[in-house]
């Protein structure tokens, strides 16, 4: 009886080690979770929302307009931000009188449902996104620490 119990314990412990190793590898290389903090992405994302992040896609997928990205804060490496891509490398953008214009086209931001989240009383901002950079904004334009404050973010 003692040998069978020992074998069951070894099998059980081995299974636990394999599962934990798989979870660590999954969290490190494929999928991770992030909890949204703050209201800068309202109405799309709210404080406390949990996101599953496909870590592997950053290697194979190009970042594009409207993508939601998670990145390290330029001022605090221990803090992550969640923002939306507004313009990518080489694109010309401007924010004026509540309108977002990219490459001369007034963009339809259908992900912002309500005027409460659109630009209010902002100075004109414009530029051309440098190579290997993106320009990011929070969906809640009036309550977001984003590229208007910290500039372009590297795609590397």
Automatic annotation (TrEMBL):
<feature type="active site">
    <location>
        <position position="40"/>
    </location>
</feature>
<feature type="transmembrane region" description="Helical">
    <location>
        <begin position="9"/>
        <end position="31"/>
    </location>
</feature>
<dbReference type="InterPro" id="IPR036286">
    <property type="entry name" value="LexA/Signal_pep-like_sf"/>
</dbReference>
<dbReference type="InterPro" id="IPR019533">
    <property type="entry name" value="Peptidase_S26"/>
</dbReference>
<comment type="similarity">
    <text>Belongs to the peptidase S26 family.</text>
</comment>
<keyword id="KW-0645">Protease</keyword>
<protein>
    <recommendedName>
        <fullName>Signal peptidase I</fullName>
        <ecNumber>3.4.21.89</ecNumber>
    </recommendedName>
</protein>
<feature type="active site">
    <location>
        <position position="83"/>
    </location>
</feature>
<keyword id="KW-0378">Hydrolase</keyword>
<dbReference type="GO" id="GO:0005886">
    <property type="term" value="C:plasma membrane"/>
</dbReference>
<dbReference type="InterPro" id="IPR000223">
    <property type="entry name" value="Pept_S26A_signal_pept_1"/>
</dbReference>
<keyword id="KW-0812">Transmembrane</keyword>
<dbReference type="GO" id="GO:0004252">
    <property type="term" value="F:serine-type endopeptidase activity"/>
</dbReference>
<keyword id="KW-1133">Transmembrane helix</keyword>
<dbReference type="GO" id="GO:0009003">
    <property type="term" value="F:signal peptidase activity"/>
</dbReference>
<keyword id="KW-0472">Membrane</keyword>
<dbReference type="GO" id="GO:0006465">
    <property type="term" value="P:signal peptide processing"/>
</dbReference>
<dbReference type="Pfam" id="PF10502">
    <property type="entry name" value="Peptidase_S26"/>
</dbReference>
<feature type="domain" description="Peptidase S26">
    <location>
        <begin position="12"/>
        <end position="155"/>
    </location>
</feature>
